[in-house]
Structure formats: structure tokens, C-alpha cells
Amino acid sequence: MCSMACSTSSSPPAAAVSPASCWRSGCHRSRRRCDIRRAWGGKGLQARLVWGTRAPRQPHGIRTCRRITRATGRTVPVAACVGPALGWGGLLGSRNAPVENAERGTCQIRPRQEDTVSRDVTDLLPAARELAEAMLAATEQAGYPVFITSTLRTFHEQDELHAQGRTTSGSIVTNARGGESRHNHGLAFDVAFVRPAGEDIFDGPWDQIGAIGRDLGLEWGGDWTGFVDRPHFQVPSPYDVGVLKAAATGRLRRGIGAAKANVIQLQTLLRQAGLYGDRIDGDFGPITEGAVQTLQREARLLPSGMVHPRELEELQRRLE
């Protein structure tokens, strides 16, 4: 977590820190206590990554924070930390919940009691959240009640799962590294069956559950060849993993050398949506940036010209 010039409405303001030094110092590599922690009375608040970072193996970062645990739902003014033109919504890639008044740079942070892989459907993107809630209702009605065991994962958490059965003890549970799973992008969830005592169990009528998921329009891991993952359901996406990962890490924008293949896919989909009329060349130049800004304005997002998961979700919605 960065030493940002932030304070809470019920706590004394933290010491001022230069926004530039906050953003550029790479303090996601540091585990020192920051001003936010001091402002909250040293309660050991911890931020975790959600959409990736330039150092995804580090569990702390300033680029994209998912949650601050053991908080009390306080409102944190952060415009001074990242600049009024960017605000909290821009820092998070316009995709974190719950975010309020992003233009004014304030964010209402939901309390968290644990620092583990999320089971909260509200951590999913809206399309995935709606399907997850529909899945829970449909399985309950069919007599096969399930519950959510995993929704959003950080890149770091995904790398830890990938290491299981390879470099750490346990059985192999995934072939996806950090950024390669739909879980890392808020587009997937895992389920388990409900046992009377309340324990997680994974043995049950999976074919029936898979059929319910398919009827809802979900992709089911039980249909995969090779590595079969029956508890896994994900939202179909027109994007390659490379595009999702680039958007998650802030690398799908002008001026940083975005991968040509990712830009080609973006330009193709922007053209299909009627937002881009130039040639498909893989160059994220001013025309591509302008098309992205048009998409953002029409969707009432911050017109930064940068592509984040929120922009990908909006573009997919237009193509459906």
C-alpha cells in the first residue's frame, strides 16, 4: 500500500506525501506501514491487488487495490493522492466495488473480515454477478443447492494456486497462472454443494448443475477436455487472455508499446461496435485512443483513453 496523502472523515489527516512520488516510487515493493494505516490508528489495514500490478507476485500495491480489511466502511478522500483528473475510479481502472463519487475522488470501502480468496459475488463484474445469482436461484429451485466458494482472485493468489502440486504440497488444481484465469478478471466463480452441516463438498450431481449453467449461458469447466474443472463456471468472453491481462494491468493504452495482437483484437471489436473506422494495424495511436474515449463517454466512464476491464465489459455488451 502506498504512503498516500489520504485521511478519513473520522480520523486525523495523514501527513502529506507528493502524489508523484506516491505513484512512481514503486512502493508496492515495500511492506512498510503507510499513512492510511496511521490515519486509522494502526489497525493493520491491508490492501490487496485485484486487476494486477507491475509486480503481481507482491500482495501489496498501489496500482489496483481490491479491499482494505478490518475497515469500518469509512469514506476515504483520495483525489489528492492521484490527482483530481484521475481520482479513485481512474486509479482502479474504473472497476472496483463499491465506488462512489469517483469524480470527487472518494471511495466507500466495504469492511472485510478475512484476507483470502473472495467468495463474494459483488466482487464479480456485473454480467458475471447476475449469472452467479441466477445460478444460485436455479440450482435451489431444481433441488441441487450450491454456494459460491471462489469469485475474484488476485494474480498473486492465482500464482499460489498454480504452484500447488508443482512447487508446493497438494494436488494440481489449475493450469492457469496469474492473469490467465477468468477468476482474475471477475468473470468466473466456483461452486460446491451444500451439506446439512454446512461444510464445502465437491461430490454431487455435477451433470445436472453443469446443464443449469449451460442453460444460463455460462461455460462449464466440466465440459473441458484435458483438465476438467467441474466446480468452475465462467462468462463467455470475446477477448483473448492476453487482452484481459493487458487491460487488468493498465497496459492496453497509447504510449507504452501495447502488444500488437492485443491492439488488433481491440480495434476489430471497436470497428464491429461502430466506434472505429480506420485500418486494423495493431497501432494504439490517436485514432484508436479517440475511439476508446468515445466508448467511455457514451458509457459515462472517465474518458482516459485507457482500456480497463470496465471498458472491455462495455464493449462486449454492445456486441451482444
Q: How would you describe this protein?
A:
The chain is an alpha+beta fold and 320 residues long. It has helices at residues 19-24, 35-39, 79-82, 87-91, 126-142, 155-163, 206-215, 241-248, 260-272, 286-298, 309-319; strands at residues 47-49, 65-68, 75-77, 106-108, 146-150, 188-194, 200-201, 219-220, 232-234. It has three domains: 19-108, no CATH class; 121-234, Muramoyl-pentapeptide Carboxypeptidase, domain 2 (2-Layer Sandwich), CATH 3.30.1380.10; 241-319, Muramoyl-pentapeptide Carboxypeptidase, domain 1, CATH 1.10.101. It contains eleven helices and nine strands. The protein is globular, with a radius of gyration of 20 Å.
Mean pLDDT: 70
Q: How would a textbook summarize the main sheet?
A: 5 strands, antiparallel
Flag low-confidence runs: 1-115
Radius of gyration: 20 Å
In the CATH scheme, the class of the largest domain would be Alpha Beta
**Count of the domains:** 3
List keywords for this structure.
11 helices; Muramoyl-pentapeptide Carboxypeptidase, domain 2; five-stranded antiparallel β-sheet; Muramoyl-pentapeptide Carboxypeptidase, domain 1; alpha+beta; single chain; disordered N terminus; two-stranded antiparallel sheet; 320 residues; 3 domains
Explain the layout of strands and helices.
Layout: H1 19-24, H2 35-39, E1 47-49, E2 65-68, E3 75-77, H3 79-82, H4 87-91, E4 106-108, H5 126-142, E5 146-150, H6 155-163, E6 188-194, E7 200-201, H7 206-215, E8 219-220, E9 232-234, H8 241-248, H9 260-272, H10 286-298, H11 309-319
Short summary of the structure?
The protein has helices at residues 19-24, 35-39, 79-82, 87-91, 126-142, 155-163, 206-215, 241-248, 260-272, 286-298, 309-319; strands at 47-49, 65-68, 75-77, 106-108, 146-150, 188-194, 200-201, 219-220, 232-234. It is an alpha+beta fold.
